[in-house]
Write a structure and sequence with these properties.
91% helix; 0% strand
């Protein structure tokens, strides 16, 4: 049992380190490129994801491209949450919306 909790603590610490590393990279990108440029990039990445999803609906096998565009959008979302200072707010809304979805699914 003790080994399990040690492993669990190690996993949590690793996740936190990765999150901090990502946050630092987001901050550096915002500083290097500027917020206006990154907001435009956010819109561009969302449009590219939309394009790939539309191709999929038309029957194209493009899971790799969809995965790439989702990764791009998630990276830009991280920067937007940081820039607007809304990380906690997003998590609160996400939690609430997921609870609401669960309730709808349960009837």
């Amino acid at each position: 049992k003790e080994d399990f909790f040690d492993l669990q603590d190690e996993i949590i610490a690793t996740i936190k380190k990765l999150e901090e590393r990502n946050k630092k990279t987001y901050q550096e990108a915002l500083k290097f490129f500027g917020p206006e440029s990154q907001i435009k990039k956010m819109l561009e990445e969302m449009a590219e994801l939309q394009k790939e999803l539309c191709k999929s609906l038309r029957g194209k096998e493009n899971r790799v491209e969809i995965a790439e565009e989702i990764a791009d959008v998630e990276i830009m979302l991280g920067q937007m949450k940081l820039y607007y200072g809304i990380e906690e707010g997003v998590e609160r809304h996400k939690k609430w919306k997921l609870q609401r979805l669960e309730e709808r699914l349960q009837g």
